[in-house]
Design brief:
38% helix; alpha/beta; seven-stranded parallel β-sheet; binds ligand FO1; Rossmann fold; three-stranded antiparallel β-sheet
Length: 306
């Protein structure tokens, strides 16, 4: 059984690759919920939804998030009422948030709700939220403290980042099934996701890093930095502003306490020794996933290495 720690769009590409090679009983995904937001009274879980929409074939291929060919009538109507319209919520996507919020209000846990939404959309793979608690990430910036979605979407990552705050995390526990999955895994894969806003919140759940140390399974991380650039999103900008070099080596350093294997892109092979000096094994291959074939090849390559 492979366990994947996953953020949003980058992660869902590799998850899709694995899903073409492994059955539902062979893959468990632990999803980031640090980017969850409560907006208009609704609980929105972008990373969980990105994974569900990707695995169900519903995702918007142009953005990698949201539902393909969705309409935005509700958002337009909301805008005309003077409501917030900076967060693009499609009409069909809204149904997911309405239903999730309603089930949570009835007393179901996020784990239960995520399972039932996944099932309803035909997703057989096990997707667990990292925790059932609401633990939104806040970005401490030169413009003050911003919710992660305000920083990413409304402010387009322009503010300069000083630090991150994983709110309410001290009270959180790993969601049911998370500890067991990690301890029983044959391998744990950290997806090529942002280490601060996608994987960081998962690692900040109390007890989670200890589980990664404790498990007998090899823990692998796939680089989100290739050729000194982030594959997607603001990872490079965040590394710089938090005083790290924009290099795969920084990612390996961030994970070094529990990491066994770092998967470096073949374009960066010369960094191999630098990472091996951190007592981490290094494997090199193509990690850039543009086509479906790339996604499957990377997943197959990882399985063969394992
Ligand atoms: N990303 C954007 O860049 N702009 C948006 O308006 C936006 C809306 C949105 C709505 C639902 C959803 O599930 C995701 C959405 N995203 C949007 C993506 C999201 O901000 C990021 O992908 C993650 O939070 C980071 O992993």
């Amino acid at each position: 059984m492979i366990v994947m720690l996953a953020g949003g769009v980058g992660a869902s590409k590799l998850i899709l690759g694995f899903s073409k090679l492994l059955g539902p009983e062979q893959l468990t995904i632990i999803g980031n919920t640090g980017d969850d937001i409560e907006l208009l009274g609704l609980r929105i879980c972008p990373d969980l939804d990105t994974i569900i929409y990707t695995l169900s074939g519903k995702v918007n291929p142009a953005t990698g998030w949201g539902i393909g060919e969705d309409s935005f009538d509700c958002l337009q109507a909301l805008k005309s009422l003077g409501g917030p319209s900076w967060f693009q919520l499609g009409d069909r996507d809204l149904a997911t948030h309405l239903w999730r919020t309603s089930l949570l209000r009835e007393g179901q846990s996020l784990t239960q709700v995520t399972h039932s939404i996944g099932q309803a959309l035909g997703v057989q793979y096990r997707l667990l939220p990292m925790t059932d608690s609401y633990v939104p990430t806040y970005m401490v910036t030169d413009q003050g403290e911003l919710h992660i979605q305000e920083y990413l979407v409304r402010e387009q990552c322009r503010p300069i980042l000083r630090e991150l705050r994983y709110s309410n995390i001290e009270q959180a526990q790993p969601a049911p099934g998370v500890a067991e999955a990690i301890l029983k895994a044959e391998a744990v894969v950290l997806c090529p996701s942002n280490p601060f806003i996608s994987i960081g919140p998962i690692l900040a759940v109390p007890g989670l890093q200890e589980l990664l140390v404790q498990t007998e399974a090899p823990v692998l991380a796939v680089t989100p930095i290739v050729n000194q650039r982030a594959l997607k999103g603001p990872t490079a900008k965040m590394l710089k502003e938090l005083a790290y070099a924009v290099s795969p080596t920084s990612i390996a350093e961030i994970y070094k306490d529990f990491l066994d294997v770092f998967v470096l892109d073949e374009r960066d092979w010369e960094l191999r020794e630098e990472i091996e000096a951190l007592q981490i094994r290094v494997l090199t291959c193509n990690t850039v996933m543009t086509s479906m074939e790339d996604k499957i090849n990377l997943a197959r390559g990882l399985l063969e290495m394992l």
